[in-house]
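Entry:
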Amino acid sequence: MTDPVTDPRLTLLRAPNPSPMTGEGTNTWLLVEGEAVVLIDPGPALDAHLRAILTALAGRPLAAILVTHAHLDHSALAPGLAAATGAPVLAFGPAGAGQSALMARLEAEGLTGGGEGIDRAFRPDRCLTDGEVLQLGPLQIEALHTPGHMSNHLCFACDGLLFSGDLAMGWASSLVSPPDGDMGAYMASLRRLAARRWRAMLPGHGAPVADAAARLAELITHRAAREAAVLAALTAGAADAATLAAAIYHDTPAALLPAARRNVLAHLLDLADRNLISAPLPLTADSIFHHP
């Protein structure tokens, strides 16, 4: 069997957008079998990355542009790439599609995001449904709605390979920033993926992950530990997300502390929804939470 991490059908094109949140840059995956060529995550709207993709295509027709989610570092190049190739853009929907009732209510009550670069202009040519299987030449690609990092997040499965977008990566844990991110949905999505067997995981940032099962289990354990740390900290006294993040993420680089605060807020909102902690309504990023 072909080594899934060095599968000759796969080409990784990394966008030149390194940052503390993107690692070395956004991964664009080309999947080729026979005459079928599929691209997963076009990446940020950078001319250099568009040229790199077109060079890699070498004139071959592109069957589809699949987008895992509507963050600018994953989806912004979709219109330009579609115009250059004529390929349709397929995704779960625009930003906000698939949002849970809880997050929709919190957003309506005034909860705002943390400025994670949402692509508000993103509009796919066709919206995919959870479990839909695309037959593109000999390639069968299954779309899996996996909200949590973002409500419209999709993972794609093909021949035991998991294209995991930003839901699960090897180099870092994922940002979950309400109301676009949802910790309850994130944990459910991780567990859903962990219930299946994968040959490898191909994330939206960082290197391929050969042992997907071990990494998914590690991420679930990591988030459970963070939840326990939040609850333990609240037993010492009421606090807001910023105070808790400073206490729990004490070894985190300063550049990543804003993301840490959003992750803690996501845990707090999930715990409050499960009636394990409480806070005055309406809930905001600055709410003071109490335990119990």
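The two ends are 53 Å apart (CA to CA).
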